[in-house]
């Protein structure tokens, strides 16, 4: 079952058989880590996030917890992590806190072709959510690396986001 199938058929399944539709989303959430690494499965997780409620989002976060940094460096996984960052204040905080646990992770992700989008989304959301503490911790982790970050487009965008806020 792909994302297109979920997108096209889930609304009818939810209307006709709510219990089965809930089971489907729970199965997707329980397998979110595996699916997020798959070139097509990541779309299924993203689609489930559209249809899910807070409980389902918590299940997805639980499945992905401890893997956000690694997933941010995968093409499909980075889309899932970015969607998690954009999903809620709690989602943003969980992911940023996990990234900050490894001192090299913010810089590594900022230079990465996929990870830089996760860092950009995190900075933007922390600013919108007025979470100054995490915003400053992330910005301070990146500041010593500004010269190196200027060497690629994603890194420049991150530097510009932070410098624009000073």
Describe it.
The chain contains 13 helices and no strands. Helix 2 (18-30) packs parallel to helix 5, helix 7 (75-87) crosses helix 8 and helix 9 packs across helix 10 (115-128). The chain has a single domain (17-164), classed as Alpha Horseshoe (Leucine-rich Repeat Variant), CATH 1.25.10.10. It has 166 residues and is mainly α.
CATH architecture: Alpha Horseshoe
Poorly predicted ranges: none
Distance between the termini: 47 Å
In percent terms, what proportion of residues is strand? Answer: under 5%
Cα radius of gyration in angstroms: 17 Å
**Can you tell me the number of structural domains?**
1
Q: What overall form do the CA principal axes indicate?
A: elongated
Helix content: over 70%
Helix-strand topology string: HHHHHHHHHHHHH
How many E-type strands? 0
**CATH homologous superfamily - what is it?**
Leucine-rich Repeat Variant
Pumilio repeats: 27-62, 98-136
Keywords: Repeat, RNA-binding, Translation regulation
GO molecular function: mRNA binding
InterPro entries: ARM-like (IPR011989), ARM-type_fold (IPR016024), PUM-HD (IPR033133), Pumilio_RNA-bd_rpt (IPR001313)
How would you summarize what this structure contains?
The protein has helices at 3-16, 18-30, 32-36, 41-51, 54-64, 68-71, 75-87, 89-101, 105-111, 115-128, 132-142, 146-149, 153-163. The protein is mainly alpha-helical and 166 residues long. It has one domain (17-164): Leucine-rich Repeat Variant, CATH 1.25.10.
Defining key terms:
single chain, elongated, mainly alpha, 0% strand, Leucine-rich Repeat Variant
């Amino acid at each position: 079952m792909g994302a297109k199938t979920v997108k096209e058929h889930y609304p009818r399944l939810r209307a006709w058989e709510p219990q089965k539709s809930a089971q489907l989303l729970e199965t997707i959430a329980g397998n979110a880590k595996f699916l997020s690494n798959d070139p097509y499965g990541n779309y299924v997780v993203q689609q489930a996030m559209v249809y899910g409620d807070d409980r389902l989002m918590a299940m997805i976060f639980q499945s992905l917890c401890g893997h956000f940094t690694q997933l941010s460096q995968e093409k499909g996984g980075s889309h899932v992590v970015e969607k998690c960052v954009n999903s809620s204040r709690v989602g943003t905080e969980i992911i940023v806190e996990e990234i900050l646990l490894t001192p090299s992770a913010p810089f590594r992700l900022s230079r990465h072709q996929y990870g830089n989008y996760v860092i950009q989304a995190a900075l933007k959301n922390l600013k919108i959510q007025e979470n100054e503490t995490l915003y400053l911790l992330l910005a301070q982790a990146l500041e010593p690396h500004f010269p190196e970050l200027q060497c690629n487009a994603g890194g420049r965008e991150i530097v510009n986001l932070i410098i624009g806020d000073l």
